[in-house]
Structure formats: C-alpha cells, structure tokens
Amino acid sequence: MTRRVSEDDGDPARLPLRPPPVPALDAPWSLRLVTPHDAATVHAWMHRPHVATRWDQAWSRERWDAEIARQLAGEHSRPCLVARDGLELAYVEIYRVARDGLAEHYDAGPDDLGLHVAIGEEDRTGFGLGTALLTALAEALLAADPACERIVLEPEEGNAAMHRALAKAGFVATARVRLPHKVALLHVRERVTAA
C-alpha cells in the first residue's frame, strides 16, 4: 500500500509536484473553480437532504467559508462548480490521492486523481446526468493530466445510485474500504492506452 504523503513528510520527491488540474469540459458541461462568493451555494446544497445524508457536511456557512478558503489556498484539492447548459448543478472536489487518507487503502499511484461529487440540484438527479457528468469529468481529467493513470471515487457502500452511475461511466468497483467517516466502495477508472 502507498501511504499518504504530505508536505510535512520531508520528502518532496514523493509528492506530485502539481496541484490537481481543473480541466475544461466539453459542452454542454462547464467546470470552474469555486470562488469565496460560491460558499452560499455550496452551503445550501450541503443542507439538502439528498446531499446531507451522503456527504455529512451540513456545516455552518462560516465553516464552509473556511473550508473553501483552505482548499483554494492549498495544492491538495480543487473545489469546483459544474454547470450543464449554463445552469449550475453540482459541487466537485478534485484531489491528489497521494496527499489524501484514501492512499492508505489501495496501491495509489503518485498522480492518481480522486473525485468527490455532489449533484446539489435534486430535480436534476435520476435522468442519467450523474453518469454523463462522471464520464465527462474522467475523460477531461485524464486528458488534462497525462501522468494520471487512474481516477478514483469512494462513495458510501450503501449509495446504490452512485455505484450504478459509476459503472455506467466506466469505473470498476475494486475494494471495500473502511474510512474514518464511512464504509465505502473504491471505484477506479484506469487510463486506456491504445494497443
């Protein structure tokens, strides 16, 4: 197993030198980095029951302000908003797995990218948008970062809708992992190289 590394480990050669990319998505999708002004949107989505039960981050507005500022100031994770046809519908965190606790649960490569995805607009769920979004994100991340060999997600074990969407988007469930805050299924989408 690869253990998580951080700036404090004293071995910068083990760390990916780049923060995770924020790739451009093909229309009708768009992806942009969150700004401090977006904290109200993220805060509202995290309080919606369909998100709150899975993310367990129905925090105060002040805590979300601080969390977004922390992520924007660091190199581990990139908080983003996703829109489809110009309408924002999802919050996404793109992160380097090697800098995350998830790295302790599988043989993480130094450039693996992880995703956390929350479709905040409940009326836009159940129509295949999750599958389409996951496909678009995976393809864009692999194109934006040639060193990345895998995209991973670790949804809660009981999140059947997410597991179905990931399978349809080309991800494979590879392991059951016990994380501090949940039991999850690790889903991996590998880079496909032409033969």
Automatic annotation (TrEMBL):
Pfam families: Acetyltransf_8. Residues 29-195 form the N-acetyltransferase domain. InterPro entries: Acyl_CoA_acyltransferase, Acyltransferase_MbtK/IucB-like, GNAT_dom. The keyword Transferase applies. It comes from the Bacteria. The keyword DNA-binding does not apply. Gene3D superfamilies: 3.40.630.30. GO terms for molecular function: N-acyltransferase activity. Residues 1-21 are annotated as: Disordered. One of its GO terms (biological process) is response to antibiotic. Keywords: Antibiotic resistance, Transferase. Transmembrane segments: none annotated. Pathway: Siderophore biosynthesis; mycobactin biosynthesis. Acyltransferase required for the direct transfer of medium- to long-chain fatty acyl moieties from a carrier protein (MbtL) on to the epsilon-amino group of lysine residue in the mycobactin core. This is Lysine N-acyltransferase MbtK. It comes from Actinomycetospora cinnamomea.
